[in-house]
């Protein structure tokens, strides 16, 4: 594998065509090129047009989560989630479900309620059955459980779902959620999604290893899991490429698919150099190099089937203003990153 370098980036930018990313990936049978979208911005023509032109897979940023879909117990609001699905269908895109169960973004009635284990099982069962059945055969995959692992001891984080008591049928709420999801939509691929787990080396090694062992244990217990989502909310200078490659390889060895699910590369402060990030050609080149190198790893991996950024334009990002984390700028113009990724796909 040859990682894209800054010295070659000028050639990449000059030589790449203007063909949409999704077209190249689809024509070559490569991984999906995806982005998270927010239906609140569908009224903006540039937003809709850029997403439709460049991407062949979309994930709803927030509107398919528990708190959005079931704000009142037993009363479901599918408007936002349906809007993203409709957008995907209209534009020939795959629709990725995100998510069934998470420690966060839950409705107040759930977080503030005093529920015992049996009642929580019922709540989870009703929610996954209702949502999963509505989108049955319409989603390519679901993030069944999101961010369940602690950042310190890597055990299951304390949350409302942690109060579900293990039984002979399931060892934790995680196992239960995957079993329910398979019953609700047998065709969708079922994923566990988390952050700080992309590389099996460096600062993410501990949590990455814990997640791998958790997934391997689920397979051994017969829990229906198909893949893992690697969130990558990192900086422009991220460079643990060997660890990402090795991590994907070990998942492939146990039959688990990998999606890069939430990628953005922020222009960061550099305290070791005693300076703030200055957004200009140098920072853009560093960001483009990193986007291209990660895409190249995904394209070359037998496990990686989706390369997805968390948003696509700097106009709408969950990160702080001035971090410039996404491939298109605030005016929906291509940054160096788009041209670099296009070249990776053209040469795959």
UniProtKB/TrEMBL annotation:
One example of a Gene Ontology biological process annotation: xylan catabolic process
Family annotation (InterPro entries): GH (IPR017853), GH10 (IPR044846), GH10_AS (IPR031158), GH10_dom (IPR001000)
Annotated signal sequence is: 1-18
| An MF annotation (GO) of this entry | endo-1,4-beta-xylanase activity
User: What domain of life is recorded for the organism?
Assistant: Eukaryota
> Which reaction is this enzyme known to catalyze?
Endohydrolysis of (1->4)-beta-D-xylosidic linkages in xylans
Keyword Hydrolase among record annotations: yes
Sorted alphabetically, which SUPFAM superfamilies does this protein's record hold? (Trans)glycosidases
- The residues responsible for catalysis, as annotated, are 262
Task: List keywords of the entry alphabetically.
Answer: Carbohydrate metabolism, Glycosidase, Hydrolase, Polysaccharide degradation, Signal, Xylan degradation
- Known EC number(s)? 3.2.1.8
User: Known PROSITE patterns for this protein?
Assistant: GH10_1, GH10_2
Q: Where is the GH10 domain?
A: 15-344
Belongs to which family? Belongs to the glycosyl hydrolase 10 (cellulase F) family.
Q: What is this protein called?
A: endo-1,4-beta-xylanase
